[in-house]
Amino acid sequence: MEKTIVILGGGIGGIVAARELRRHLGNVHSFPPSYLWVMVGWRKPAAIVKPLPAMEKHGVEFYQATIRAIHPGEHRVETDRASFRYDYLVVALGAELMPQLVRGWAEGVHSFYNLEDVIKLRDALVSFSGGTIAIVIGETPYKCPPAPYEAAFILESFFSQRANGGTTIKVFTPEPAPLPAAGPAGATMLSDLLGRRRIELHLAHKVSAINAGRRISFENGASCEYDMLIVIPPHRPPQIVRAAGLTDESGWVAVDPNSLRTQFPEVFAIGDVTTVRLPSGGNLPKAGVFAAGQAETVAHNIASELRTHAPLKDFGGMGHCYLETGYGRAGYIQGDFFAKPVPVVSVDEPSVTHHWKKVVFEKYWLWRWF
Fold first, then answer.
1. In a domain? residue 42
2. Beta-carbon neighbour count of residue 198 at 10 Å?
3. Does 33 fall in a domain?
4. 330 and 190 share a domain?
5. pTM score
6. Which helix (H) or strand (E) holds 334?
7. Which range among 2-16, 323-337, 341-355 shows the weakest confidence by mean pLDDT?
8. CB neighbours of 121 closer than 8 A, spacing ≥ 6?
9. In which order are the strands placed within the sheet that holds 200-202?
């Protein structure tokens, strides 16, 4: 009997799951790892955008619709276009950005977590005449943990080549260390590099409010005056998954760390919408590399149950990323996040080689999946 697999979402996880399922069984996407290059004009937006209907040439049916409800007990997804029944459901809806949760957020506050905001920030940077740029992590968790630090490095590199009256860059995070997911060695390397580049790092600063007069205040009583403000907005799971009863007390979709199954056996969830508890007690970072790995695992296992009967495989918690540092260099972070008792993470110093590997990866990814 023919089976129907419904994949909700068109980000990294959703795309990989769709293509991998079609390979095993016989609107647009923009590539988030390149957003910061768009921010400073090193990439044109059109270069990192692919139409999602292009996947139809690979045998994947694409529907653009607004999801109204997920009914796991009925094996049904309701949209504004039609109701879809499924045998398997893969939820890859990502995280919603909620800037309204930051008191005082208004026009003129920038972000770089979607392409529209990146383009606005790029245009603002062109006319920026100098002063203080504050990069503020609103709260945790947020997707792509290295991104705020990459933004700081790229902006420092960008302004070093412009006569704009001088620019000071300050990074504020509510966390006790920069990029704690990279482990103590990664945090030390990052702190040292920020210091060498004269980028100020302020730890344990949880934002309280954005105030009039270009000033942001923090719960510890500190405040900062700025000329440009870039805030990583709070992330939340889509309301639709909460209403479907897929989330746990964390608010995110709870899954088995190895199989990515939810409490409903035919429903899987991957990527930023999930919470994956680590053996160390922490949570798996929200990053595209994990979404892609989870998607491949889910696709393999669904295909095995339906047709191939190949041995099931587990998601192993392995991940890596390039940390762009400007000046044509990038660091490299890789780790086994399921290791016991704590994740085993290694960090390579920035190099020209790693930068070009990231460039090649961007080109390969957009070619491979479309």
1. no
2. 9
3. no
4. yes
5. 0.89
6. strand 329-336
7. 2-16
8. 39, 110, 111, 112, 230
9. 200-202, 167-172, 131-137, 228-232
